[in-house]
Amino acid sequence: MSTRERILETALRLFNETGTATVSTNHIAQALGISPGNLYYHFRNKEEIIRALFERLFALWDEGGSLPADRPATLEDLQQVVRESYRLLWEYRFVYRELVALLRHDEHLRQRWLEVRARGFDGFYALIDAFVAAGVLRLPDDPAVLPRLAELVWLISEFWLPSVEVSGEPMNPAHMEHGIALMLQVLDPYIVKP
Amino acid sequence: MSTRERILETALRLFNETGTATVSTNHIAQALGISPGNLYYHFRNKEEIIRALFERLFALWDEGGSLPADRPATLEDLQQVVRESYRLLWEYRFVYRELVALLRHDEHLRQRWLEVRARGFDGFYALIDAFVAAGVLRLPDDPAVLPRLAELVWLISEFWLPSVEVSGEPMNPAHMEHGIALMLQVLDPYIVKP
DNA sequence: GTCTATATCGCGATAGAC
DNA sequence: GTCTATCGCGATATAGAC
């Protein structure tokens, strides 16, 4: 692995462990066993490291969020998308922990974030809408229900993990499944039972 | 106002604006127009200031979270509780933005947080349960539904505000009402219509 | 590409005068 | 209770040898 990539791996680990504020460029270099000067050869500063980690996360999102194009999507597919989203958020958990501060500190990063996030939400919205069209879900006439359901599912997929972290319990796979159950609870009253 | 209280007010404002990490004790003293030495007379360090701010938030929660004892609670009461919760979270918005890092850094604070949070969740659970008992809500036989609904309502009341912040739009009262609507969306399928 | 050495800066914290 | 002065430390960042 290239030095640049090893810097990113180490930074990600340290950021997840104790946060970007307490982890200095010196810490990263020392944990990796290289000199501070060497690190500065690869990245101009800590901000650039953070940007690069965000871009890696964005790329993973774009890979994992897609659905099978050859058949109609099922509720299983929705679960799978949310499960994958949880997994990535866990791997990059420093991101959501510090998101507001990080975006405030870096306008360029903020623009990128808003773009990628909007794409992600549109995907969720289209998915729920497709379920309605396919008869998997039956919604009431009120046209406000669909957007609200999409927002709720999105909110859960973004914040379930931080919610568990705040509770103080160590994260485990059962927590992930519980988050899936909460998401399904929101949709359950509208699921057309066979 | 005492100097101690003015320090807390200034620290709260600065923490909300740019986060605890970038705000030093020097910054707080300078913004307030006192000397760094004076600040250290009132607080041993920044950690103590943060603890004091958390305690102020806890006290406000305990005040605002109670329901009228002289009559059965209504869905209006639930909305009011959540609305008040949003207001406090906005006033102390640095808390949720940095919660995981702050609790990790201060074990004492973490214990206090878990205590207060558990009380708050129990209140929500009891409230939803009371609605079922009073016939305002009718739930299916599945005993897992009640706890899931309580968790969802709780999740929304905790994370709706951070969710709006992350979206990049400036906060406004309409966002608060939209958060209320999302919470009601979760309960709506179970509300007994007259 | 990687190292060592170093310059500059600001933070946290304390001592002691008033 | 509030101030000034100051010390020690660690972080960011760069220069220049290898």
Describe the structure.
The longest helix of chain A is centred in the middle third of the chain and has 27 residues, at 107-133. Chain A starts with a helix and ends in a 7-residue tail after the last helix. Chain A is built from ten helices and no strands. In chain A, helix 2 (25-32) packs across helix 3, helix 5 packs parallel to helix 9 (145-167) and helix 9 packs antiparallel against helix 10. Chain A has two domains: 1-43, Arc Repressor Mutant, subunit A (Orthogonal Bundle); 50-190, Tetracycline Repressor, domain 2, CATH 1.10.357.10. The radius of gyration of chain A is 19 Å and the shape is elongated. Chain A is an all-alpha fold. Chains A and B meet through helix 7, helix 8, helix 9 and helix 10 of A and helix 7, helix 8, helix 9 and helix 10 of B. Chain A binds a DNA duplex (18 and 18 nucleotides) through residues 3, 24-26, 34-38, 40-42, 44-46.
Brief summary:
The structure is a homodimer of 194-residue chains. Chain A is mainly alpha-helical and 194 residues long.
List keywords for this structure.
elongated; homodimer; 194 residues; DNA-binding; Arc Repressor Mutant, subunit A; 0% strand; mainly alpha; Tetracycline Repressor, domain 2
